[in-house]
């Protein structure tokens, strides 16, 4: 036999009874030496690899369906199908198969599907007696016909024979004529029999019968028969729904009659499968596998035909983006695309890939940008669904579009900013749409699905774009609700602010910066009337969504989000929400801080201690009182993490500034453990300081504190400017000195020596940074008084700064308590002095604090 090459798709049936596309190639029938027989070979058209090698077995049952399909089983649970591009190719391969098996090519099935017992029983049956004799198609024979069809369903070979008999005699059309007669005569018994007959024919699972039953001529009568279920008191009105209620809308007239017919047929057959037919039992689940395949291949064909008709799709896009298009028409166009995209989800990956590439080429993203900004809620909702399909298909395609768009458009009309606006402006009380959009934004900014190629790094390019053009829009509601200013100045200039500010709660008080003179009067939590948190539930939900996205950024973006947090003082704004009456919002704010601390980055730690940002967290813990709830557990876990991970700068800051307020909490050992670690570190550093040779403690090494801070800030800023790299953490007190460059090591040793030599001449500091820590219900928390001479103190920074900065030994020296015969620390806190005096007179105090 000569080789015959035809273009085909290879499909296999998976465990869920769905067809998986294995690729496109060219089929041939040829003799294969290894298989010792004629075989079907399919080689991929892309690279020539072998997609299929299947011997044409003389006993295998091959089925020809819909003129372009050949289906067969090679094993018990391994079904194969070849879908031909042309009918001529299918006919040619079918002839080769029939030739090998000695069959007439006019048959649709080459072998009877039989089990072993029936094979033995029918082995000697003459060829002429393969058909079942059907009763004459008359009203008085309906019961007999129904019994016959029901009886053959359990036998594969009898099902095959019955299917052939029904097809050869044109029996189905005769049955449907009887149906119309029974309806006219109101013959209920006959209609019940016809329901059983038509249902049984569907369960024969034969594509050739489906083609007759689902033709335009017959399908509505088939639906009519299925209305008369004997189990129902009254018949269903499926035909009325399909003809009157269900309307087929052509947003653009479809000129291809074959395409229109295929769409109608697919909808009706899907309706029969999903609505009319009862859910099959375990024993019947395979009865309708061919019906599923019929629908599947119809859908593949419809999508292919629409894709190929570029004139049709171009016209749809043109009308969608045309300003002259009226609202009703635009709504229909958007709904068409939504259905089109939903339809594509049933396709295999290769087909879906081609589908979305076609839409992208025609301009789906610019069109979405226009319709997502419209006032019509239904249009926006449909556009959001389409956008979700695109993001799930290819986040990179969407990212590439918005970055190109940024070069030509203002920030206000960028697609991602339009999406953020829709999230912020969602009118649904439960913010259902906002949750969906937030998930899409997270997909777009997730570095895990960003490509890194030789010439282009998508991650750095897109994140630079996002933080420069979009982040201010995303954080605007958060900044608006946590600042006395109604909004950031830049955002006030944006049109969007006026759009959604109407439902955002206006703040009633500011959360002052710690360096302002009246900071002690503005502590959140010291007075409940000071709270500026929104009490509107919808606003609180929105802020929780934004915080969730920002928390994701902290975990995955490192460098970009770090710069943003520090430049905007974002954590301070977020922690204002710790005072919200909505506990879920307070927990979101706490989770944001917990993720930052979880990074164990000394730059973040210094930012937290310098700004005294533990204060609102501790206020929330104390205001929560003795209640054992999620907020209590989350705050305790935060401090327990610091203790277990031994983050020294944060431990020192917490103990020095807040221990008196926290020492009464004894139901967990977290705070006593922090005190113990703090004292152990002080002892270690004291011993280290005393071991420094006296020659190094010379005045000639001294530099003033201001110059030292400027050097550290310069080092800090230089590290932040390295794009795309992990920021180098400053020297931690717990790390050995030889882990860092020699020059920095010498610098720190010199600094330590000169300060320890001259510290006896320094005036004592009587107040930690000149701030007063106030609690609404704990007078014992006030642990210091304002100092009149604090500005003259050398190395004048708040205590948080000295503990959290990048210097290694100076800051530790600042925390060493004054004892007899030892050097005086650079910064002497009254609390430390008091504790040390008490230790000298009352040794019992130490076990209580350190245990």
TrEMBL record:
InterPro entries noted in UniProt: ARM-type_fold (IPR016024), EVH1_PP4R3 (IPR055236), P4R3-like_central_dom (IPR006887), PH-like_dom_sf (IPR011993), PP4R3-like (IPR051137)
Residue intervals of the PP4R3 EVH1-like domain: 5-101
Stored Pfam families: EVH1_PP4R3, PP4R3
Compositionally biased residues, Acidic residues: 713-723, 829-840
Start-end of Basic and acidic residues biased regions: 732-763
Region (Disordered) residue spans: 713-851
Transmembrane regions: none
Domain of life: Eukaryota
Record's compositionally biased regions (Polar residues): 775-791, 798-813
GO biological process: DNA damage response; regulation of double-strand break repair
GO cellular component terms, semicolon-separated: centrosome; chromatin; nuclear speck; protein phosphatase 4 complex
Annotated ranges, domain Serine/threonine-protein phosphatase 4 regulatory subunit 3-like central: 144-680
One Gene Ontology molecular-function label: protein phosphatase activator activity
Record-stated family: Belongs to the SMEK family.
Descriptive protein name: Protein phosphatase 4 regulatory subunit 3B
């Amino acid at each position: 036999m000569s080789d015959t090459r035809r273009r085909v798709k290879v499909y296999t049936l998976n465990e869920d009874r769905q067809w998986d596309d294995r690729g496109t190639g060219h089929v041939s029938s040829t003799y294969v030496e290894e298989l010792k027989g004629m075989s079907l070979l399919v080689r991929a058209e892309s690279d020539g690899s072998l997609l299929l090698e299947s011997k044409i077995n003389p006993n295998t049952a091959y089925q020809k369906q819909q003129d372009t399909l050949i289906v067969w089983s090679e094993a018990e649970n391994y079904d194969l199908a070849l879908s031909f591009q042309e009918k001529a190719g299918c006919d040619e391969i079918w002839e080769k198969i029939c030739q090998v098996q000695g069959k007439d090519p006019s048959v649709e099935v080459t072998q009877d599907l039989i089990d072993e017992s029936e094979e033995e029983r029918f082995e000697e049956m003459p060829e002429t007696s393969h058909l079942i004799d059907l009763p004459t198609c008359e009203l008085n024979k309906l019961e007999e016909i129904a019994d016959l069809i029901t009886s053959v369903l359990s036998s594969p070979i009898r099902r095959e024979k019955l299917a052939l008999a029904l097809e050869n005699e044109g029996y189905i059309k005769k049955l449907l004529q009887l149906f119309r007669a029974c309806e006219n005569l109101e013959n209920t018994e006959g209609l019940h029999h016809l329901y059983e007959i038509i249902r049984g024919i569907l369960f024969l699972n034969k594509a050739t019968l489906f083609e007759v039953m689902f033709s335009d001529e017959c399908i509505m009568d088939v639906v009519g028969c299925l209305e008369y279920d004997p189990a129902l008191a009254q018949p269903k009105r499926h035909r009325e729904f399909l003809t009157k209620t269900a309307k087929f809308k052509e947003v653009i007239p479809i000129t291809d009659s074959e395409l229109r017919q295929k769409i109608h047929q697919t909808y009706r057959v899907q309706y029969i499968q999903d609505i009319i037919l009862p859910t099959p039992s375990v024993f019947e689940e395979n009865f309708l596998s061919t019906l599923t395949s019929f629908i599947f291949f119809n859908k593949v064909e419809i999508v292919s035909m629409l894709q190929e008709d570029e004139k049709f799709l171009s016209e749809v896009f043109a009308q969608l983006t045309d300003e002259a298009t009226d609202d009703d028409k635009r709504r229909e166009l958007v709904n068409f695309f939504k259905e089109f995209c939903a339809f594509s989800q049933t396709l295999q990956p290769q087909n879906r890939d081609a589908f979305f590439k076609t839409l992208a080429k025609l301009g789906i993203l610019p069109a979405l940008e226009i319709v997502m900004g419209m006032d019509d809620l239904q249009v926006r909702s449909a556009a959001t669904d389409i956008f979700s399909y695109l993001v799930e298909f290819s986040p990179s395609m969407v990212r590439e579009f918005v970055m190109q768009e940024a070069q030509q458009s203002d920030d206000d009309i960028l697609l991602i900013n339009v999406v953020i606006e829709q999230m912020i402006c969602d009118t649904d009380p439960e913010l259902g749409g906002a949750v969906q959009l937030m998930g899409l934004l997270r997909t777009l900014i997730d570095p895990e699905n960003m490509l890194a190629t030789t010439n282009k790094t998508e991650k750095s390019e897109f994140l630079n774009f996002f933080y420069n053009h979009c982040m201010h829009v995303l954080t605007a509601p958060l900044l608006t609700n946590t600042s006395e200013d109604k909004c950031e100045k830049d955002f006030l200039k944006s049109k969007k602010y006026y759009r959604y500010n109407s439902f955002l709660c206006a703040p009633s008080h500011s959360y002052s910066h710690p360096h302002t003179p009246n900071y002690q009067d503005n502590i959140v939590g010291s007075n409940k009337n000071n709270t500026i948190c929104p009490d509107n539930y919808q606003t609180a939900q929105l802020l929780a969504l934004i915080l969730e996205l920002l928390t994701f950024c902290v975990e995955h973006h490192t460098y970009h989000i770090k710069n943003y947090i520090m430049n905007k003082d974002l954590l301070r704004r977020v922690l204002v929400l710790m005072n919200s009456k909505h506990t879920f919002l307070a927990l979101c704010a706490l989770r944001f801080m917990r993720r930052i601390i979880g990074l164990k980055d000394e730059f973040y730690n210094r930012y937290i201690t310098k700004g005294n940002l533990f204060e609102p967290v501790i206020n929330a813990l104390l205001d929560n009182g003795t209640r054992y709830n999620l907020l209590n557990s989350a705050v305790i876990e935060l401090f327990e993490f610091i203790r277990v991970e031994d983050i020294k700068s944060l431990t020192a800051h917490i103990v020095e500034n807040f221990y008196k307020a926290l020492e009464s909490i004894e139901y967990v050992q977290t705070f006593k453990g922090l005190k113990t670690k703090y004292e152990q570190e002080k002892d270690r550093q004291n011993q280290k300081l005393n071991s420094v040779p006296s020659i190094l403690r010379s005045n000639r090494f001294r530099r003033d504190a201001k110059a030292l801070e400027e050097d550290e800030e310069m080092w800090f800023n230089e590290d932040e400017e390295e794009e795309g790299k992990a920021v180098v953490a400053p020297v931690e007190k717990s790390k050995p000195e030889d882990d860092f460059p020699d020059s920095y090591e010498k610098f720190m040793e010199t600094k330590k020596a000169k300060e320890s030599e001259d510290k006896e001449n320094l005036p004592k500091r009587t107040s930690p940074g000149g701030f007063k820590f106030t609690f609404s219900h704990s007078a014992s928390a006030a642990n210091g008084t304002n100092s009149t001479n604090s500005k003259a103190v050398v190395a004048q920074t708040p205590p948080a700064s000295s503990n959290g900065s990048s210097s290694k030994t100076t800051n530790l020296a600042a925390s060493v308590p004054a004892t007899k015969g030892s050097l005086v620390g650079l910064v002497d806190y009254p609390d430390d002095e008091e504790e040390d005096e008490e230790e000298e007179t009352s040794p019992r105090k130490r076990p209580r604090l350190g245990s």
